[in-house]
């Protein structure tokens, strides 16, 4: 190639860089001045006011890791904004390190066990907490919570189901941030349409329940709407959309929906293991029944869903091509974005359906119910919140920053804006009469009023349900979860039968337990259930 | 080659076009994706302007993001430095293998040993390397990645260059030796120039290998030494993959090596004559 | 061939470099493989049990079969296609250089990125792959079926690496002297015969080396299946590097992962050495 060609190429490259530098749009979002004022004043005691005047953390930089999503992305975006605001208040500096979400856990681990201590805190998922607390890598925060020098947040605003995630044996270790659980989203407009209700009655012989209260009912409805074009957009539509990909969080579908098959008033806490022997319960008749239902449900949706991650699955629902989707709070808030969603104002939300019979592993019998047995869930993944690393050199500054984000106004701001990736769960985020907030807080942030009420109601009922599917919080929880993921996927794709798949999970879980030491696991599992 | 008839020429171009369409499709697709607004990614639209309104917004954000520029810079730095080191000491080693007999160790075995280094899944070395780099204080520096990448690309270069040197007529070397030249002179006055094309080809392939190395880059860097593959991996968020950024980053990531490769393209074909083909 | 002190100086830098950076990791990993390493709990010596566990583990066998299947098919297709392309583009036609350069672009694409790109290409509802298939009236479950998932990985891997084979074979084709072809054309007009009796035999040592080099690389395939299917659906594309990666960095059982690594090393090296010996025999 001649040198002129080389020069041209280099010229083009240089030019594009210059263009990039000049024309780069501002990437960060900003608080409005009104929001800033509210957040800055929230949780401030008179002692703290005086403390802040001394700029106590001047010269200190603390490092926090988070799932990579950029300055405008979910979970990470708010950190930049709060970091700056906190820095203005206290004189400290927050350095945000973004790590690809699938590698986040291991990078934090490597930092901890090699004693590197580069991270002061990390925005951890719920399922890491077992490993972190049990291996003594994080600092309890009870003393900080009592100290009036730090931003105040009220533990009473947290429902017991979520409190379980952030405490160990009753002691607080983690400042609350995000609240994650699955609810059912459905197309209220379609299901309430009389012509479809008549169709349903003709086919199934009972009235179309809006929302469905059992999984069997949901299956029937999904079947009615699967495989034909009911929204007249020219393409085939589906009953239900799911994200079943390995590593694409498909396993949490199974975990959330199978809870009522095993947990009930007869058995309020045994879903994962038998606390006496640490033998897995995962291949019990209840679990197998649930997996069979999951496979049934997957047939009422696109076959491709087996390889779908969150965005593909949610995209299907947001385009208006599916009736049901059961997933986390993000879908509700994404539905409010008119650029992406065609279902704004058409949303129905409800806690996940239940079952009419549930298996009790203690007695080995099925228990029948006259009213559907509905159980809440706080899924093992998500609930991104930060503990303070034991290797941190500035634990007070770190806690200060984390508490700053956990105060009433900060959390309200976080939870109500959909893009932040943080979802509602605390009392002041629910709409009256469930919580203390007015629906206008939602509508002024872009929510449709009806959608907001549905959403808030569903989540309230989910988190305040006395029966809860317990998240796994012992060492190895990531291993146990990811193994379950693999075999659930095998069963869904039809490679093995549900019973075989769950038997294989049993074997693998036994391997993991053996490696981790059965006695220690039993001790920790019992403690985690308290 | 015989002259082709006109018909045969047409046939040739037709087949070529077909091949080109198939091979370049993914790149075309990436370009289309990079100008799609996020809403359109799964809509199945193919042609900008015809089916959707293209936007430069993605590109502007990409080029304006400091991280992308840093990653591009780091990738370029690490790849070029590694390649230069690999070519220098690799060609020396290849020459040594070519010229000398070794007592006690068959040349064959050394080659096999080199090959074995490429066989082990890199994951097995993650923890030891992390500990090593931490001890030397080299975490999150381009230096660490250069050290490791050279280690793993060296075998490849040595083997191919060894084959190339074997191509050099023994008579030429012997003649030079008889004339009184030292080994070093033979090396850099005869062996290297004669196989310059092969060296460039090996250099380009090494560049590609190092450029695309993902696992070690991921584990050993935090922020300062971030490279393009890690950035591309980072488009996978909890909520989904930002395909439009994957597209822009892939295209960006392909540009620099291609620019370098195109500049030496003329040598690429001529130079990949491996010793195995007697010519 | 000479002897003398100089020989060491040439080899020294490379050998030293490699030794320094591989001895410690190798020894460390080898030692680890005899321990059960659990994060936060430290290590405990368990002798050879990790190795026994390797062969006991159903996922190990599944992974070996999957990996070799994908590697074998990919390498065969890449070599075959590369050869055909080299023959096609070996002719001196105007514009050849451009085509060759364009064809070498996929080499520089990061496998992880190609995997993500593949997600949009193989998107079963509206992606181009199924759009193309619908011309034949078919809809292929590219990513949600165990067989087709493997095929998707193979297709993308072929796209990335065929240029590598193509470029090398092209050089080989060019190094065959014109005279050989001239003489051959005096005897026969059949292109097939010329290929079989002249081109192929002259290229076979080259083909051998490429196959071995590609096989070694293909067996280490990681980024592509990880980003495209994450080893799924189920364990359909859980290739060996993904299995080792999971054991090391998800389950944090570094001892077991090291054992897996060394078992793999043993298997592949046996194949490589056997192949190499045969190759040398043909060559010499």
Q: Please count the beta strands of chain A (DSSP E, at least 2 residues each).
A: 13
Top-tier CATH class of chain C: Mainly Alpha
What do we call the CATH topology of chain C?
Answer: MetI-like fold
Q: Tell me the name of the CATH homologous superfamily of chain C.
A: MetI-like
Give your account of this protein's structure.
The complex is a heterotrimer of chains A (530), B (279) and C (284). Chain A has helices at 3-23, 33-41, 46-53, 77-90, 101-113, 129-134, 142-146, 160-166, 188-191, 194-204, 215-225, 250-262, 285-298, 310-318, 330-334, 395-406, 408-416, 439-443, 449-464, 477-493, 498-516, 518-529; strands at 61-67, 93-99, 121-122, 167-168, 171-172, 183-187, 238-240, 322-327, 347-350, 355-360, 365-373, 376-377, 468-469. Chain A has 530 residues and is an alpha/beta fold. Chain A folds into two domains: 33-179 and 381-429, Periplasmic binding protein-like II (D-Maltodextrin-Binding Protein, domain 2); 183-256 and 267-324 and 469-529, Periplasmic binding protein-like II (D-Maltodextrin-Binding Protein, domain 2, 3-Layer(aba) Sandwich). In chain A, helix 12 packs across helix 13 and helix 20 (477-493) packs antiparallel against helix 21 (498-516). Chain B is an all-alpha fold and 279 residues long. Helix content of chain B is 71%, strand content 1%. Chain B is built from 13 helices and two strands, in the order αααααααααααββαα. Chain B has helices at 6-34, 57-64, 66-99, 107-119, 126-136, 142-167, 170-178, 183-194, 196-211, 215-220, 228-233, 243-263, 265-271, and strands at residues 236-237, 240-241. In chain B, strand 1 (236-237) and strand 2 form a beta hairpin. In chain B, helix 9 crosses helix 13. Chain C has a two-stranded antiparallel sheet. Chain C has 284 residues and is an all-alpha fold. In chain C, strand 1 and strand 2 form a beta hairpin. Chain C has one domain (45-283): MetI-like (MetI-like fold, Orthogonal Bundle). In chain C, 72% of the residues lie in helices and 3% in strands. Classes of the chains: A alpha/beta (530), B mainly alpha (279), C mainly alpha (284). Chains B and C meet through helix 1, helix 3, helix 4, helix 5 and helix 6 of B and helix 1, helix 3, helix 4, helix 5 and helix 7 of C.
């Amino acid at each position: 190639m001649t040198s002129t060609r080389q020069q041209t190429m280099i010229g083009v490259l240089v030019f594009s860089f210059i263009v990039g530098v000049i024309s780069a749009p501002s990437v960060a979002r900003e608080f409005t001045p009104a929001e800033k004022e509210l957040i800055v004043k929230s949780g401030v005691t008179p002692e703290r006011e005086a403390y802040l005047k001394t700029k106590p953390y001047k010269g200190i930089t603390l490092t926090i890791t988070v799932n990579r999503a950029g300055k405008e992305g979910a979970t990470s975006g708010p950190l930049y904004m709060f970091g700056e605001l906190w820095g203005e208040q206290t004189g400290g500096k927050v350095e945000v390190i973004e790590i690809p979400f699938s590698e986040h856990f291991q990078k934090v681990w490597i930092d901890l066990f090699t004693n590197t201590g580069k991270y002061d805190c990390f925005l951890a998922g719920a399922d890491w907490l077992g490993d972190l607390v049990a291996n003594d890598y994080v600092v309890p925060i009870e003393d900080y919570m009592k100290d009036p020098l730090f931003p105040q947040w009220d533990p009473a605003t947290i429902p017991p189901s979520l409190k379980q995630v952030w405490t160990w044996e009753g002691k607080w270790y983690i400042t609350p941030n995000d609240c994650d659980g699955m609810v059912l989203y459905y197309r209220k407009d379609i299901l309430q349409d009389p012509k479809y209700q008549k169709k349903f009655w003709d086919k199934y012989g009972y009235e179309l329940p809006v929302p469905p209260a059992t999984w069997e009912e949901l299956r029937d409805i999904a079947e009615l709407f699967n495989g034909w074009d009911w929204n007249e957009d020219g393409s085939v539509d589906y009953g239900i959309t799911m994200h079943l990909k390995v590593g694409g969080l498909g396993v949490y579908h199974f975990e959330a929906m199978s809870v009522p098959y095993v947990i009930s008033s007869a058995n309020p806490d045994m879903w994962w293991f038998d606390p006496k022997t640490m033998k897995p319960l995962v291949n019990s008749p209840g679990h197998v029944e649930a997996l069979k239902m999951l496979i049934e449900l997957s047939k009422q949706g696109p076959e491709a869903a087996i390889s779908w991650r969150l965005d593909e699955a949610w995209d299907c629902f947001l385009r208006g091509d599916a009736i049901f989707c059961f997933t986390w709070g993000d879908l509700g808030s994404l539905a409010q974005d008119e650029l992406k969603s065609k279902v704004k104002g058409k949303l129905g939300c409800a806690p996940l359906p239940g079952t009419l019979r549930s298996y009790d592993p203690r007695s080995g019998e099925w228990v029948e119910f006259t009213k559907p047995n509905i159980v809440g869930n706080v899924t093992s993944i998500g609930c991104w919140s930060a503990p303070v690393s034991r290797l941190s050199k500035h634990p007070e500054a770190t806690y200060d920053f984390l508490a700053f984000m956990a105060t009433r106004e900060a959390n309200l701001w976080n939870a109500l804006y959909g893009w932040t990736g943080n979802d509602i769960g605390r009392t002041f985020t629910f709409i009256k009469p469930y919580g203390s907030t007015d629906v206008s807080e939602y509508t002024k942030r872009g929510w449709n009023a009806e959608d907001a009420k549905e959403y808030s109601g569903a989540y309230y009922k989910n988190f305040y349900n006395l029966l809860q599917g317990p998240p796994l919080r012992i060492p190895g929880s990531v291993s146990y979860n990811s193994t379950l993921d693999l075999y659930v996927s095998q069963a869904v794709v039809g490679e093995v039968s549900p019973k075989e798949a769950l038997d294989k999970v049993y074997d693998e879980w036994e391997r993991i337990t053996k490696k981790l030491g059965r006695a220690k696991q039993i001790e920790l599992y019992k403690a985690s259930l308290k | 080659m015989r002259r082709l008839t006109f018909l045969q020429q047409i046939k040739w171009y037709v087949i070529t076009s077909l091949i080109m369409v198939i091979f370049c499709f993914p790149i075309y697709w990436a370009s289309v994706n990079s100008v799609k607004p996020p809403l359109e990614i799964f809509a199945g639209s193919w042609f900008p302007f015809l089916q959707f309104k293209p936007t430069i917004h993605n590109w502007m954000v990409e080029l304006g993001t400091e991280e992308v520029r840093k990653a591009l810079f780091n990738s370029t730095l690490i790849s070029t430095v590694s390649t230069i080191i690999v070519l220098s000491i690799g060609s020396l080693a290849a020459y040594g293998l070519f010229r000398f007999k070794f007592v006690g160790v068959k040349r064959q075995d050394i080659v096999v040993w080199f090959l074995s280094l490429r066989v082990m899944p890199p994951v097995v070395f993650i923890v030891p390397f992390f500990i090593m780099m931490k001890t030397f204080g080299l975490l999150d520096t381009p230096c660490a990645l250069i050290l490791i990448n050279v280690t793993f690309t060296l075998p490849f270069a040595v083997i191919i260059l060894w084959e190339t040197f074997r191509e050099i007529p023994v008579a030429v070397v012997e003649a030079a030796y008889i004339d009184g030249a030292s080994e070093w002179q033979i090396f850099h006055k005869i062996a290297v120039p004669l196989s310059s094309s092969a060296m460039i080809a090996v250099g380009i392939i090494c560049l590609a290998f190092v450029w695309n190395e993902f696992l070690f880059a991921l584990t050993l860097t935090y922020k300062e030494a971030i490279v393009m593959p890690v950035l591309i991996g980072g488009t996978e968020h909890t909520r989904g993959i930002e395909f439009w950024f994957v597209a822009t980053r892939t295209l960006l990531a392909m540009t620099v090596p291609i620019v370098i490769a195109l500049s030496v393209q003329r040598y690429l074909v001529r130079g990949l004559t491996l010793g195995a083909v007697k010519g | 061939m000479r002897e003398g002190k100089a020989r060491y100086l040439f080899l020294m830098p490379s050998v030293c470099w490699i030794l320094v950076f591989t001895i410690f990791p190798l020894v460390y990993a080898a030692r680890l493989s005899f321990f059960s390493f659990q994060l936060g709990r430290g290590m405990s010596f368990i002798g050879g049990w990790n190795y026994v566990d390797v062969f006991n583990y159903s996922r190990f066998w599944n992974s070996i079969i999957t990996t070799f299947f994908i590697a074998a098919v990919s390498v065969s297709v890449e070599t075959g296609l590369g050869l055909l392309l080299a023959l096609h583009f070996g002719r001196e036609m105007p514009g050849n250089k451009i085509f060759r350069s364009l064809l070498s672009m996929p080499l520089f694409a990061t496998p992880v990125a190609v995997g993500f790109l593949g997600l949009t290409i193989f998107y079963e509802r509206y992606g181009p792959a199924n759009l193309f298939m619908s011309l034949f009236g078919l809809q292929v479950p590219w990513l949600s079926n165990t067989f087709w998932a493997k095929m998707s990985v193979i297709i993308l891997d072929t796209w990335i690496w065929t240029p590598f084979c193509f470029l090398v074979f092209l050089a080989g084709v060019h190094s065959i002297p014109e005279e050989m072809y001239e003489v051959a054309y005096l005897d026969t007009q059949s292109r097939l015969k010329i290929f079989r009796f002249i081109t192929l035999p002259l290229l076979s040592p080259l083909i051998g080396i490429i196959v071995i080099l590609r096989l070694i690389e293909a067996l280490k395939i990681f980024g592509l299946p990880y980003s495209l299917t994450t080893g799924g659906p189920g364990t359909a594309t859980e290739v060996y590097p993904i299995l080792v990666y999971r054991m090391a960095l998800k389950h944090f059982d570094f001892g077991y992962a090291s054992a897996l690594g060394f078992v793999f090393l043993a298997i592949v090296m046996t194949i490589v050495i056997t192949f190499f010996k045969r190759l040398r025999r043909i060559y010499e």
